[in-house]
Amino acid sequence: MAIKMSSELLDGCVLGILEHQDYYGYALTQRVQESADVSKSTMYPVLRRLKKNQWLTTYDKPYHGRNRRYYRITQSGKDKLVGIKKEWNQFQAGINNMLGSGEQDE
């Protein structure tokens, strides 16, 4: 069974990764895929949406005769990430409460 990731949570994952360093699209997709079952075709619409909401900005850098588009989190994106982290912590605590804290019942 694979648990589906909501778009809000995926947004948070992308913003969280970009909080630490800028990535170009393919490398960012690979980084997300290290921890989540997300297709490559899912990532670019996510990046477009985050940019449209002004949570990301882009810049190009030449690489072997081509340009790579890099993504950078904005201050607005950092603010959004704080909210997502807060919601995630509340959600996680609720789920852990329902599933049990990991302690065995006696």
From TrEMBL:
Transcription regulator PadR N-terminal domain span: 14-81
Coiled-coil region(s): none
Matching SUPFAM superfamilies: Winged helix' DNA-binding domain (SSF46785)
Gene3D superfamilies per UniProt: Winged helix-like DNA-binding domain superfamily/Winged helix DNA-binding domain (1.10.10.10)
Domain of life: Bacteria
Pfam families with a match to the protein in the record: PadR (PF03551)
UniProt cross-references to InterPro entries, sorted A to Z: Metal_resp_DNA-bind_regulator, Tscrpt_reg_PadR_N, WH-like_DNA-bd_sf, WH_DNA-bd_sf
PANTHER family: PADR-FAMILY TRANSCRIPTIONAL REGULATOR (PTHR33169), TRANSCRIPTIONAL REGULATOR RV3488 (PTHR33169:SF14)
Protein name: PadR family transcriptional regulator
